Amino acid sequence: MEVLWGFIVGLVFSTVGAAGAILAGVGHISLFGIKEANLIKFYNQLLVAVSPIVSLPLYFKQKRVVWLLAILLAVGSIIGSSLGAYFSYLYLKDLKQYKNLFGLLTFLIGIKVIYDAFSFKKDKSTCRNISTAFKGLKLSIRQCDLLRDISLFNPVLVGFVIAFLSSAMGVGGGFLIVPYMLLMVRLLAYYVPGTAVLVVFITTLVGMLSYYKLGIKVEWIFILKESLGVILGSLLGPNLSKVVGEKPLRIFIGLLLLALGLSYLLNLL
């Protein structure tokens, strides 16, 4: 069962990119009946950290990571993840309280996934020319003929806030990092997935290590089985989205998240 559920999580994460940790949490709470909230957060983040192991080498090879932007986000993420885990370990350890917040987050992400399904448009731009450089206290990003300067503190602060919230809830944070890159940084869509996956990997890695250092007791055989399933699902996910279509998959997963979120909020699960 652990391998099968991990497979489903990896499948979703590699196709939608924003709900892997949520489905992992659903399994840990309702399917496997784990009673310790902090352990659930650790397991969720570990599974999210496993999935990029498959995709990151491909993004590196394709040169789809904007390194300077990723580094700035990661600086904030490392601090935010550590503090988020510490705060959550102390003040969000009650399972019932965590389930209510988890249900609300699941419901909100369900809305976002459905919204993205109807608003998502494939990037038809052929522009792949991008360069970045530090200019004083600003990061200069040139994309073809478009030049944009952003404060160095902007991605650091954003990375901190997203990582704090993600680590506190035991999720990856991709559902917030991707809109930030597209809407605020206005990064070419071609470079968003690779850059976001790297930042999410760092965020979840630091978060789960922080929980582990705080003293949770891990069943390693259990999580290794789930991790194997995640790797297998992550390998199949991109092929499935080509066959079924990304929009139908997003709508289905979005509706599923809405139903699950409502179930937790109404204490049905």
Q: Mind describing the biggest β-sheet? A: 3 strands, antiparallel
Radius of gyration: 18 Å
First-to-last CA distance: 19 Å
Q: What's the β-strand tally?
A: 3
Number of helices: 11
Shape: globular
Order of helices and strands: HHHHHHEEEHHHHH
Structural category is mainly alpha
Overview of the molecule:
The protein is mostly helical and 269 residues long. The protein contains 11 helices and 3 strands; from the N terminus they run ααααααβββααααα. It has a 3-stranded antiparallel β-sheet with strand order 1-2-3, covered by helices on one side. The mean pLDDT is 88.
Could you outline the blueprint of secondary structure elements for this entry?
Layout: H1 2-15, H2 20-31, H3 37-50, H4 52-61, H5 67-91, H6 95-119, E1 130-135, E2 138-143, E3 146-151, H7 153-169, H8 174-184, H9 192-213, H10 220-244, H11 246-265
Antiparallel strand pairs: 1-2, 2-3
